[in-house]
Amino acid sequence: MAQYEVTLRDYWRILRRRKGIVVFTAFLLGFFSFLLASVWKPQPLFQATAKVQINFHQNLTGLYLQTIAYNSGDQIETQQTIITSQPVLRRTGTELNLMDWTKTGADSAQVLQDLQRIITTSQEGFTNIITVSAKHPAPERARDMANTLCRVYRDYNHELKNIQAVRHREFVERQRANARTVLAQAEEAVRSYREDSELISLESQASVNLQGITTSEREVQRLRQDLNAITTMVSEMESSGGLSERTMQGNSVRRVGETFMTLSRNLNVQRQQREALLVQLTADHPNVRRVQVKIDQITRDLSGELRHRREAMRLDLNSEEARLLELREQYNLLPSRGLELSRLLREVAMRQEVVTVLEESYQEALIREADKVEEVSVLEWALTPSVPINPHHPLRRAVMGVLLGLVLGVVFAVVAETL
Prior knowledge:
By secondary structure, the protein is of the alpha+beta class.
């Protein structure tokens, strides 16, 4: 059987003769490709991307241990795992209201698995920046997921790194409140003791008591002297019926009183008047007797006044001696009261020192808590995506169908020519 070689010219002649098959096949495949692409188009999926930066701020000891145990790559991988961990995703789902419908642990696990499937993380090059991506059919939902996850992760890392400082501050705060209460109780005990014992300070109270004792002793001595003098005057009046000029010269208003001095002056006047009458008259003269009667009455009044004065002075002496005894007892009690007051004051001073130390510790705790370096910072917030990551292009598929149809059309044309 004879064989013929087919040249390009023969193929071109076949295509020209069978061009209807080629065009029909290309049109048919292109049309069906466009139709299927339009009917079975996929659901658009949007992806929102946010970026967080990890700043590793540690002290020298922590940095040394980190250099021995880990490298920066391990740290970034660890942080990526933490981002997609259940605690972070659970908080994210709660803020996005995805956990509202869950009633059992299985429902919660399903939500967390969906979030782990939707959210992806990756390291950007060899930097310390982590890219957080969220995919969702709704562009706003994808944006909210990425931003919420970054914010929750930042707060979670902040709490995790600084929980020790917060616990220390809370402990110092409780101790400071207790110390303030104990200090107030100690100060109240000092105040009550001072009010009950009337003791302000040991030195001042001792000085006041000594001054009171000295004054009281002088008063007792004076009252005793006055009482002895009045007793002598009473005895003299009872024995002689009057007082001598020497006795009267040693008296004072303070000792015998104003009434006695007035009666003494009246007595002297009556005596002078009697002496003047006796110059001209006898002792039995009525005028002389009348004056004598007045002298006798005044003498009795003087004697009664002296007795009354003596009784009053005895009462004053007894009262002053009792006061002196009380002052001496108070002075003798000062050492024990001073010791008790010193003990209470030492207690107050110790409590004040404790409160001062706790106040300083509390301020340091506040500074330590406020001076926290945030390890995670949101470098770039996610924006609302406008283009889906799976765009639908039916014309592109139609063009591909046309090209495939041309190839198949050429094949069909050659096969038809050989039949």
